[in-house]
Amino acid sequence: MEEQSRDKIDFGFRTVNKSEKEGMVANVFHSVAAKYDLMNDLMSFGIHRIWKRFTIDASGVRRGQRVLDLAGGTGDFTAKFSRMVGETGQVVLADINDSMLKMGREKLRNNGIIGNVNYVQANAEELPFPDDYFNCIIISFGLRNVTDKDKALRSMFRVLKPGGRLLVLEFSKPVIEPLSKVYDAYSFHILPRIGQAVVNDAESYRYLAESIRMHPDQGTLKGMMENAGFEQVSYTNMTGGIVALHKGFKF
C-alpha cells in the first residue's frame, strides 16, 4: 500500500499515477497556449505585471550573465532579461511544453528579440545543462506543475553557478483570512467561466485553480529549497500572499 502511494501524485484535487501527470499537464498547456497572455491579464486584472516587475528587480542580473527562464512559457521574463544581459550575455527560454515554447519564440522574434536568446524544450527535473552554468534561474508560475518538485529544485541547484540565485515566483497561500475566502470563490467559480468564455476550456482552468491549492505553502517551499542546497532562502508575499517570491542562493 505504501509502495502504491509513492507512485501516486496530485493532479489538482485528483490523485493520478506519477507517470501520467506530465502528459496531463502538457494537455492543459497545449489547450491554453494560444491565449495564455490574454488569460494572464484577465485572471490577475493585470496585477501579474507588477509581480513580474518586482521579481526582475530582485534578480540582480547584469550584463554578460547567463539566465535560465525555466517553464518560461511565452517569454515575458526572457524579453526583459535579454535586454539586461546584452550582447555578451545569454538567456535560455526553457519549457517542457512545445506549444508554449513555440508561442514564446514567435512572440519574442516578432518583437525583434533574436541574438542572445536560445530555446530549449526541457524537463525541470532533468535540466540538460552543464553544472555551474547560470548566474540566475527563474521559474515563474511553473513549479506547481512539476511532478517531482524536490528533484527539480536539486536540478536547478546543480546548473546554478556558485554565487547565483534562484527565484521562484508562484501562487501561494493568502495570509489574510477574508482575502482567502474571496480568492477561493473567484478561483473555483469565476475563473473556470472565464476559461470557458475565452479559451472554450473550463476544465484546464479548474485544474490550474486546484493546482494552486495543492502547491506547498510559503514555509514549506522555503524548507524544500533549503533541502535542495540553497542558502539564505527568503520569501516575499505579494497581494496578501496570493503570490510569493522565494529567493535562494548557491554558495
UniProtKB/TrEMBL annotation:
Keyword Transferase: yes
A GO MF term: demethylmenaquinone methyltransferase activity
Matching Pfam families: Ubie_methyltran (PF01209)
Residues that span the membrane, as ranges: none
This protein's record includes keyword Ribosomal protein: no
GO biological process assignments: aerobic respiration; menaquinone biosynthetic process; methylation
Catalyzed reaction equations: a 2-methoxy-6-(all-trans-polyprenyl)benzene-1,4-diol + S-adenosyl-L-methionine = a 5-methoxy-2-methyl-3-(all-trans-polyprenyl)benzene-1,4-diol + S-adenosyl-L-homocysteine + H(+); a 2-demethylmenaquinol + S-adenosyl-L-methionine = a menaquinol + S-adenosyl-L-homocysteine + H(+)
EC number of this enzyme: 2.1.1.163, 2.1.1.201
Sequence similarity: Belongs to the class I-like SAM-binding methyltransferase superfamily. MenG/UbiE family.
Name this protein carries in UniProt: Ubiquinone/menaquinone biosynthesis C-methyltransferase UbiE
Organism: Morganella psychrotolerans
Top-level taxonomy: Bacteria, Pseudomonadati, Pseudomonadota, Gammaproteobacteria, Enterobacterales
